[in-house]
TrEMBL record:
Record-listed GTP binding positions: 26-33, 73
A single MF term (Gene Ontology): GTPase activity
Keyword GTP-binding listed: yes
Species this chain originates from: Nicotiana tabacum (Common tobacco)
Pfam annotation, one family: Arf
Keyword Cell wall biogenesis/degradation belongs to the record: no
SUPFAM superfamilies membership: P-loop containing nucleoside triphosphate hydrolases
Protein name in the entry: ADP-ribosylation factor-like protein 8A
Swiss-Prot/TrEMBL keywords: GTP-binding, Magnesium, Metal-binding, Nucleotide-binding
Lineage of the organism: Eukaryota, Viridiplantae, Streptophyta, Embryophyta, Tracheophyta
Length: 104
């Protein structure tokens, strides 16, 4: 079982709902859109463009439909985060850290 499948199973165990909403927030280039794509399609691409504002994607896994709000991480979009985090089932904060920064 892959990491993303385990994450989806964990989310299903927390929320016995047919539908749920998740807001993905985090600084720019943290991988929020990549995470949405992996959950939705199982695929990963390094060629991504920054999210302008937000993107919404509905994903159905089994009998659960997940509405994913992928929110832009640039400073000019962060004021929108609160609006898209109200009344959602969960908020995912994506963070990236570079091991290179700790080695050098």
């Amino acid at each position: 079982m892959g990491l993303w499948e385990a994450l989806l199973n964990w989310l299903r165990s927390l929320f016995f709902q047919q539908e749920m909403e998740l807001s993905l927030i985090g600084l720019q280039n943290a991988g929020k859109t990549s995470l949405v794509n992996v959950i939705a399609t199982g695929g990963y691409s390094e060629d991504m463009i920054p999210t302008v504002g937000f993107n919404m994607r509905k994903v159905t896994k089994g009998n659960v439909t997940i509405k994913l709000w992928d929110l832009g991480g640039q400073p000019r979009f962060r004021s929108m985060w609160e609006r898209y985090c109200r009344a959602v089932s969960a908020i995912v904060y994506a963070s990236i850290f570079s091991l290179f920064n700790y080695i050098v």
